């Protein structure tokens, strides 16, 4: 991608180069044409002078007797010549041409005007010539001067254009700088960009307005989750305290204490469900800071360490294949922990006793990859499709939890721009793969 | 010890008071911020349980007020809003701990006790459990001068049960305490059973541990009555 500023400068340079090239090619031709016309006019003027001279003083001062048939004169540097001679040509001549003439053993290239004139019943041919040598040398000089001048002008205008473009586009640069690497509308710099260009002004204003609106939506969502959280969790809290107080009473019937415990368990499920939903809402409204730097393999090992006792108790072996570690920046450590924890836990739940699963991490290309695979019961295509949707992922009803764990994992992955994919085959096992983005 | 419970949800305040009274605390109630502010100004409390979601008052202002008036009370902040900033702000203002609603009453008690241990430096003495000795200060379990090799989670679990001896703790209460804020959906009642099973295996390698009881249908309990006279706390 090329920046607009560079593009404009490049175009500017190319167009000026093209103009220069055009001038270099056509300028000599144009100058030559102008010069020739000038010379021709001059020659015609001279012809008129000669003719009027002849009309006034007659032909004899030039051609005095019958013996002389021609008159010729040239100046000392042979730049111009004039000749008058009797002719027996029938046709009338009135043209201008370029021709070589021998004058005193020197061949000179002349622009020559030919003209036939009748004087006293005798036809004469008048020739007036101007040497092209002097013209050509002056042409060269003019050409040089013009070229140097033009190149100077082009160079100066190029530099001025460049500076002006830079000045003109500065506000746009500032706007793009504000947008660069922004992931959260709340962190958008709302100080207006100074500009006198209305387009940039409109653009900046619109962006700021847009960001403000999105920010307000986030704020509103945060307020809603806070309120919902309060409204839902307070009654749960009351019930829970009441039941717990009942449970610690002395001399409770075992039957009754069992029932209270069951109620607490149900209540706990409700609480964990509400918390999970609020958790997702909080991630989506970006209430978690992304400021941690940590090693991913360390987190993976920690998660595996926590779940291992449960897996071992169930007779599931967790293999760890982690070679290169990777440091993740600008992320939320506890969220990443939760993401892996949910997926690994899910894998343990879905693996039958005696089965095994593998937690593997490796670097492929520029990306850090984690795969969590099991040889458990696997899933059908329909099951995979709704795997990450809330409430639908539960494969069996005997499990604890709310079946929302994978939805949480997906939300966290999306929040961190981690690409998650699932491959699964019925009765063969399931594999979750995570591709981490490059640190920016 | 004197506790002021600042909670606008009256039935919840009553339940907390009921529970803390059974643990020999003196409880006072305030159902709004104004009332709480007056009571804190007049009375001396060891603890203030403060719900941040008061209708008339920003709970955090109460901490500011109390700290400004040189009150010795320790604040335990309770909130159902669960916003991360609230927690940080509360702790910044000098709250001693933070609990998210809904919490287990036993968890509240153990937080109060933990603050009391820090504040008055009590309860850090060794606790005798049959042939075992728990060195709370060093987070170690000793049997015949040998350290029992426990994982961090196993130790936490055992200490929680020991510090709340003679009370039945449900699996959820234990789970919540050990795994803290439920950032995910991994709650599995099996977790606690597995850890208790492993714990027992390790303990029994050194000496029998009849004091670690399973209460059928409810949960687990450490019965200190079965221990010698060196009772904890």
Secondary-structure blueprint of this entry?
The complex is a heterodimer of chains A (440) and B (233).
Chain A: H1 4-57, E1 70-74, E2 80-86, E3 94-103, E4 106-119, E5 122-131, H2 132-179, H3 198-247, H4 254-284, E6 292-295, H5 296-314, E7 317-322, E8 327-331, H6 333-349, E9 356-364, E10 367-374, H7 381-385, H8 405-415, E11 419-425, E12 429-435
Parallel strand pairs in A: 7-9
Antiparallel strand pairs in A: 1-2, 2-5, 3-4, 4-5, 6-8, 9-10, 10-12, 11-12
Helix pairs in contact in A: 1-2, 3-4, 4-8, 5-6, 6-8
Chain B: E1 2-6, H1 10-22, E2 26-30, H2 33-42, E3 47-51, H3 59-68, E4 74-79, H4 84-92, E5 97-100, H5 105-120, E6 127-129, E7 132-135, E8 140-143, E9 146-147, H6 152-163, E10 169-170, H7 171-179, H8 189-206, E11 212-215, E12 219-222
Parallel strand pairs in B: 1-2, 1-3, 3-4, 4-5
Antiparallel strand pairs in B: 6-7, 7-8, 8-9, 10-12, 11-12
The secondary-structure class of chain B comes to alpha/beta
Oligomer: heterodimer
| Count of β-strands of chain B | 12
Helix content of chain B: 40-55%
Task: Give the helix proportion of chain A (percent range).
Answer: 40-55%
Beta-strand content bin of chain A: 15-25%
Percent of sequence in beta strands of chain B: 15-25%
| Largest interface, counted by CB within 8 Å of the partner chain's CB | A-B, 53 and 45 residues
Distance between the termini of chain B: 14 Å
Look at the structure and name the CATH superfamily of the largest domain in chain B.
Response regulator
Number of helices of chain B: 8
**Topology pattern of chain A, helix = H, strand = E:** HEEEEEHHHEHEEHEEHHEE
Spatial shape of chain A: rod-shaped
Helical/strand content category of chain A: alpha+beta
Low-confidence stretches of chain A: 395-400
């Amino acid at each position: 991608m090329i920046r607009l500023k560079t593009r404009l400068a490049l175009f500017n340079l190319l167009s000026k180069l093209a103009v220069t090239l055009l001038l270099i090619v056509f300028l000599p031709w144009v100058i030559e044409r102008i010069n020739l016309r000038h010379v021709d006019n001059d020659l015609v003027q001279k012809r008129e002078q000669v003719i009027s001279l002849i009309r006034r003083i007659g032909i004899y001062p030039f051609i005095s007797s019958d013996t002389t048939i021609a008159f010729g004169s040239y100046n000392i540097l042979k730049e111009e010549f004039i000749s008058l001679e009797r002719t027996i040509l029938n046709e009338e001549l009135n043209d201008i041409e370029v021709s070589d003439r021998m004058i005193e053993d020197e061949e000179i290239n002349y622009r020559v005007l030919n003209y036939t004139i009748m004087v006293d019943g005798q036809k004469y041919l008048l020739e007036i010539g101007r040497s092209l040598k002097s013209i050509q040398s002056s042409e060269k000089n003019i050409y040089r001067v013009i070229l140097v001048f033009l190149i100077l002008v082009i160079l100066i205008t190029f530099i001025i254009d460049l500076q002006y473009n830079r000045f003109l586009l500065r506000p746009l640069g500032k706007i793009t700088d504000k947008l660069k690497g922004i992931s959260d509308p709340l962190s958008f710099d709302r100080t207006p960009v100074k500009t006198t260009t209305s387009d940039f002004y409109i653009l900046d204003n619109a962006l700021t307005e847009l960001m403000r609106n999105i920010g307000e939506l986030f704020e509103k969502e945060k307020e809603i989750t806070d309120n919902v959280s309060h409204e839902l969790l307070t009654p749960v809290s009351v019930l829970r305290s009441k039941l717990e107080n009942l449970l610690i009473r002395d001399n409770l019937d075992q039957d009754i204490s069992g029932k209270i415990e069951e109620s607490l368990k149900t209540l706990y499920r409700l609480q964990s469900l509400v918390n999970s939903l609020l958790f997702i809402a909080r991630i989506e409204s970006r209430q978690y800071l992304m400021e941690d730097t940590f090693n991913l393999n360390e987190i993976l090992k920690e998660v595996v360490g926590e779940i291992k006792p449960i897996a071992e108790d169930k007779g599931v072996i967790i293999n760890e294949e982690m070679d290169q570690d990777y440091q993740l920046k600008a992320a939320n450590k506890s969220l990443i922990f939760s993401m892996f924890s949910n997926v690994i836990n899910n894998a343990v739940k879905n693996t039958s006793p005696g089965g095994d699963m593998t937690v593997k991490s490796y670097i492929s290309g520029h990306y850090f990859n984690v795969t969590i695979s099991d040889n458990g019961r696997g899933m059908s295509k329909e099951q995979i499709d709704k795997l990450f949707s809330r409430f639908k992922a539960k494969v069996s009803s005997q499990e604890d939890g709310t079946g929302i764990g994978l939805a949480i994992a997906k939300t966290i992955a999306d929040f961190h721009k981690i690409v998650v994919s699932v491959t699964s085959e019925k009765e063969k096992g399931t594999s979750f793969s995570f591709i981490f983005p490059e640190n920016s | 010890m004197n506790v002021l419970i600042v909670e606008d949800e009256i039935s919840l305040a009553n339940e907390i008071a009921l529970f803390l009274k059974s643990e020999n605390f003196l409880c006072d109630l305030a159902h709004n911020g104004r009332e709480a502010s007056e009571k804190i100004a007049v009375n001396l409390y060891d603890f203030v349980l403060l719900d941040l979601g008061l209708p008339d008052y920003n709970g955090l202002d109460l901490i500011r007020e109390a700290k400004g008036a040189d009150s010795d009370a320790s604040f335990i902040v309770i909130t159902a809003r669960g916003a991360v900033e609230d927690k940080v702000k509360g702790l910044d203002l000098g709250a001693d701990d933070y609990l998210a609603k809904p919490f287990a009453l036993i968890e509240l008690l153990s937080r109060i006790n933990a603050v009391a241990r820090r504040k008055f430096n009590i309860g850090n003495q060794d606790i005798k459990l049959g042939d075992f000795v728990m060195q709370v200060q060093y987070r170690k379990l000793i049997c015949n001068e040998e350290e029992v090799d426990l994982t961090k989670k196993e130790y936490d679990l055992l200490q929680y049960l020991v510090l709340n001896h003679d009370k039945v703790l449900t699996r959820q209460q234990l789970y919540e305490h050990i795994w803290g804020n439920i950032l995910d959906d991994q709650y599995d009642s099996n977790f606690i059973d597995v850890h208790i099973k492993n714990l027992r295996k390790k303990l029994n390698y050194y000496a029998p541990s009849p004091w670690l009881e399973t209460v059928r249908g409810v949960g687990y309990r450490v019965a200190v009555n079965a221990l010698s006279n060196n009772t904890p706390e």
